[in-house]
Amino acid sequence: MPNLMYMTTHANMDTRNSNWKNFSNDAAWNQLKVDPVYQDNVSRIEINYLKAQPYSDL
Asked: 48 partner at 20 to 30 Å CA-CA among 4, 10, 11, 29?
């Protein structure tokens, strides 16, 4: 099964939490997540928080 990775950026954790809440309350997402076609296709969720360093291009 292929791997799918999302990398998102946020100004801070409060913004991240607000964005995640908005996504999880989105009507289109809520329709998709209960669609039988997409059931049981996630085997693992891994969350990593990365912080840009002074030498990064961000």
From this structure: 29
